[in-house]
Amino acid sequence: MPPCNCHPNDPQDYQVTNAGRRRFMLDSLAAAGGLAAAMSMPNMMRQAMADDGTVRIGYLPITDATPLLVAHALGYFEEEGLKVAEPELIRGWSPLVEGFTRGRFNLVHLLNPIPVWMRYNNNFPVKIMAWAHINGSAVLVSGQSGAQEFADLGGKQIAVPYWYSIHNTLLQMALRNAGLEPVIQDQTAPLADNQVNLMILPPADMPPALAAGRIDGFTVAEPFNAAGELLAGGKLLRFTGDIWQNHPCCVVCMNENQVEANPEWTQKTLNALVRASIYAQQNKVETAEMLSRDGRGYLPMPAEVVIRAMSHYDVDDYASPRAIRHSEWGSGRIDFAPFPYASATRQLVSAMNDTLVGGDTTFLNGLDPNFVAEDLVDSRFVRRAMEQYPEAHLPNTPEAQRWEREERIEL
Known about the structure:
With 411 residues, the protein is of the alpha/beta class. The protein has helices at residues 18-39, 66-73, 76-79, 93-101, 113-120, 166-177, 206-211, 224-231, 256-261, 263-282, 284-291, 303-311, 342-352, 369-375, 380-388, and strands at residues 54-55, 57-59, 83-84, 88-89, 107-111, 126-131, 134-135, 137-142, 157-160, 181-183, 195-200, 217-221, 234-239, 250-255, 334-335. 36% of the residues lie in helices and 15% in strands.
């Protein structure tokens, strides 16, 4: 497939009107209904990948899925000699996980902690094969809240996309650092001034809930932070990539049994994804337009929202609240660097023990971060692909940090 014939635009040129806000709300409702219907269809695609070698992608409508979608849009899978089905948009993490575990999909992106839960709580043979992206998330609050710091969130209702998410983990780290207590309770229950109530909402539901005053803020992946800014009266409190430098958010996952049974297929798939990561990193505006509903329609958002989500990261524009505090890190609002550093997995597993979630967490007891970094992640294929395409590393990455690094978290 040829590349999208798109024309870059400056995100600041766009003006979002009340009509645009209304259209966004209607789009969200329509997407919810359509996706709910899709999820209720009989599971007719439970054939394993080994049956015909077709790449079957399941994804949420967020920029975390970018490499999978770009590889499909630009024909990179076909150039590797693979067959690929049309990617299937899923509305929530639970149905995406279910579709993956049942074999409906053989290539998915999942929030980084989800595979930890799947493998060590549910004994499912999931493997992290690469990082889908780095950074690309934020904490957003109602513009009427007046919040300038995490300490201002006491007594507030904040939504997270999933208990097992980097968003929930980093949010709670920041809240505790500010002297606040994360809790999980009914929204109607009273909150102490130092408590913050957390709840799960699908990403597409967050901006409408904020606009309607049902929540005070949310933390999620793009483009829903940009949508919250442009269409729901929200303000960015902090970019998560400004807290944990170049942190992974979503990861590319496969079934371990299929990886071992089909190493050639796996390598070709990772080759395509690495090439897609390079394209996305080097062409963020064009990628945003291509993914948007004004382009190929992978994401049900207008181009101006997706462009902002992928390219707008200006210190002066985010001075109040001060959402960017480490501009010297050189991070983008979202970046694409697919190598899954073991140090980040170890850091995440350690942090999960301190993260409040709903449900049983006994599987975390005694879970060794070093063991998880070796057992859960299979970096063989992505490393081979990146050795073939070294530009997949972030620009100016020192040679000594191409395969190992130290994690940096500053709350």
